[in-house]
Amino acid sequence: MDKLFIFGCGGYAIEILDMILLLEKQKDFRYKFAGFIADREFVEADFAQRKDYLGNITESHIAKGDSVVLAIAKNLNFKQKMAENFRQMGVNFPNIIHPSCYVHTKDIGEGNIIEIYCGVSRDAKIGSFNLLNGMNIMGHHASIGDFNSLNGYVSMHGYAQVGDKNIFGISSCLLPKAQIGNNNIIAPGSIIYKRFRDDNLISGNPATAQAKI
């Protein structure tokens, strides 16, 4: 089985570990959890005492051909940087999909994390390194780019489009044909009816751009 490392520490990394341990029970899952990787300056004392904390990238001995999951939910620029660094090392990025999910599309990139009870319809498109945090819905022909974070209960309906590096708050919703560009923050509960371009703080029902970020 291939070694699978988690880059990151804290609660989100533990959530991912729980998914991996569940997936390891399935016959077609070809990965085995190898340990957590994180720079020591970012690791809390109790996490550093874990036997499966391996230290930083050098100390972990992760190597070409191994696989890694990026447990980074909010700092999307840093997530992109680490993806590029690991790619230069020849590391692989499997999609981690909870067994409860219904992911019907085959148009999906790499390094995505799709947590419990998500549904992705036929003809939807998912790029790479996205987080679907649970109970998310992507309708038919909905599309999402790279390095996005969708918190719980976010829904995207038919033909909705999302670019790169956006953060969606809990229970926000893109109605059919709504569009979001790049590097936006969408407040919890926002309802997107129309098109927004880049670098906005978006909130409300109907959603409006509140400020530039």
Automatic annotation (TrEMBL):
Q: Which segments constitute the PglD N-terminal domain? A: 3-76
The record's section on InterPro entries has: PglD_N, Trans_hexapeptide_repeat, Trimer_LpxA-like_sf
One of the Pfam families matching this protein, by short name:
PglD_N
In the record, the note on similarity to other proteins reads: Belongs to the transferase hexapeptide repeat family.
According to UniProt, the name of this protein is PglD N-terminal domain-containing protein
